[in-house]
Amino acid sequence: MSNIQVKRIYEEPESTDGVRILVDRLWPRGVTKEKAQLALWMKEVAPSTELRKWFGHEPERFAEFEVKYREELSQAVVQPYMEQLRKLAGQGRITLLYAKKEEAYNHALILKQYIEKVGSLRH
Description:
This is DUF488 domain-containing protein. By secondary structure, the chain is of the alpha/beta class. The chain has helices at 33-36, 49-55, 62-73, 79-91, 107-121; strands at residues 4-8, 19-22, 40-41, 94-98. Helix 3 (62-73) crosses helix 5. The longest helix has 15 residues, at 107-121.
């Protein structure tokens, strides 16, 4: 069982969320810092602005988006943040938070899988 879950930031925080981490580049509209109850805001692991705009949340582009986003996640500049996420997940539950309404085609799911895969390769 994974220690990583994904949910929309607009859902109510729960005691089972563990460490709540916003993984969007932009702060979500209408959410106060108090309501968000974040431990971290990791803009650095969000898709680049260029990639996000290209994707445009078009489901038919999701497969290509996933390939391009995984490439971004593998860049050296992102590795310290990925290491921090893996370490936090190793210590207990983390919740990756995103703002988009689309639940099936979002980067947080890709990020979760990426952290789990890379983490399992190290053990």
